[in-house]
Amino acid sequence: MLSVAPTRTTIRALGDLLEACKTIKALKQLHAQLVLNSLHSHRFLGSKLVDSYVQVCLLLDARKAFDEIPQRNNRSWNTILSGYSKRELPSETLDLYKLMRREGLLGDTFSLVFALKACMELCCVDVGKLIHADAIKICLDRDAYVAPNLVDVYAGFGCLDDARQLFDGMVERNSVLYGVLVKGYVKSCRGREAMHLFYKIQEDGVKLEPVLVIGFLQACALLGASREGRCLHAYAVRMGFTCSNLFLSTCLVDMYAKCRLVKWAFHIFYQIQHRDVVAWTAMISGFVLDGKSLEALDLFRSMLVELEMPNAVTVSSALAACVHLSAWRTGKSIHAFSIRSGLAVNVIVGTSLIDMYWKCGCEQYACQVFNAITDKNVCSWSAMVAGYGMHGKCHEALAAFEQMIAEGHKPNAVIFVSLLSLCSHSGLVDEGWYYFQCMISDYGIAPSEEHYACMIDMLARAGHLLEAESFIANMPIEPGASMWGAMLSGCKMHKNIELAERAAEKLFILEPDRADAYVLLSNIYADAGLWDQVRRIRTIMIEKIFQKTPGCSSSV
Fold first, then answer.
1. Which residues touch 318 (CB under 8 Å, ≥6 apart)?
2. 275-375 and 447-556 agree in CATH topology
């Protein structure tokens, strides 16, 4: 035991020894010596001891050593917070941060960053706001390390106005700060705001790092902004980012595919040497999006030949290609592959299989797949409701919806579109009104243009044309072309020329080049024997060089 107080040199030497301990045995022995000499509670050595235990992944021992330090400072707290944060224990990290605050310490840059990262992992935006208040108290809310994490917390949970306010309050903005805000906008599908940052970053003179290029490419994909996407591609090539960054190359494939530049997408895809499942999926999805379903299925087969294991999204895209081709036999083969590979139980694959079988007219298989899904969600229920509706089985569709509610699933906006469309085609006006009101009052879903169009179609089909016109007049949104189109179809069905002319007039203003609207109005006049009006409309059509799209069917 030491008989005199250790000098600063001795303390430093012991600290170096603790850092040099690479084995648990050596660390335990040195810890024992520190205890024997009553040095384990020394603030500097105690913190070093905690850090050494963290490095060898002994968090319980680290916590015990930490608890032995009587007068802990920010360094001591940061050491233990760092240990729990690195081991991805967010709940314990936040508990430690709260304990630190209860002991009267305000923390510093590092402790705030550790706590904010824990909030992100635990989805605790309210706690994040409290930590933001702590940061303001010690004037660290605009710190170069703290501010990006604060923006990340707000943006990650959709509080983008708060995130933007923080961003705009920063005097000096770096690529990290831009990156987290762009990521937040993309995550919330607000591509336009993300692209505004693309122009702003050039004004600020901030260098585009690979992570920023990826974020902006994702925003271009959302908007179909091919010009900006090509600029980013050129920049990435000049900087050499595409040579070593597989994810960036995959984002380029996805961006070009969603901008309907599939040849460019395939060119990038072909140049990727070591393709992963994400790259294959992006290209297959791109072909499907562009209507090249045969190419999508050929690429899916090539993927299997190259022994790259598809994931649930890949299989879902391949099944979507089968739907476009009505290729139910190919879809059945993919179903068999999904069973062999264990993907059939996945809810994404299961829902895609249900959709494929319904749209190919295989009701029995659709029901079998649905019943086999153990973890059904609102998407799988929605596919069943839409499938029943597609085949005119309105009572089965409504029963499936009620069963979904009984099992505790909360419906979304998509399933209500299916329900309202079903009510429209089945003439269930009262039921349609019930579900429309239920959607708004019981589930707080704001009607979209699709919901309003379904309601107008339902009323018009049932002959309630004046009620449909009144409904349009009282809507809180401007009526779109789909709504006036539904009204015009209803007018033809019930031979109401006056309303048809009003609906057509609105429709021609919104979409002056829509050929089917002119054809429909011409047919309404023809049914009424108004041949002068028929000739007038057909003359307009000829002048505009409209062509009626021929019908077709396919079965593979």
1. 284, 296, 297, 300, 310, 334
2. yes
**SS3 of residue 516 by DSSP:** helix
Tens of pLDDT along 507-539? Answer: 888 888 778 888 888 888 888 888 888 888 888
**Highest CATH level, class, for 275-375:** mainly alpha
Helix residue ranges, H only, 24-123? 24-36, 43-55, 59-67, 74-86, 90-102, 109-122
Give me the residue label for tokens 């050593």.
Answer: 65
- The structure tokens 């290209």 sit at 283
Provide the mean pLDDT of the chain: 87
For the whole model, what pTM was predicted?
Answer: 0.79
Cβ–Cβ under 8 Å, residues 344 and 372: yes
DSSP 478-513: ---HHHHHHHHHHHHHHT-HHHHHHHHHHHHHH-TT
* Tokens (6 digits) for 363: 């009701």
Give yes or no for a contact between 150 and 116, defined as CB atoms under 8 angstroms apart.
yes
Q: Contact, 118 vs 85, CB < 8 A?
A: yes
Q: Give the start-to-end residue ranges of the domains of the chain.
A: 1-71, 275-375, 447-556
Distances (CA, A) of 374 to 106, 347, 370, 377: 49, 8, 9, 10
For residues 355 and 58, what is the distance between their CA atoms, to the nearest angstrom? 50
**According to the CATH classification, is domain 447-556 in 3.40.190.10?**
no
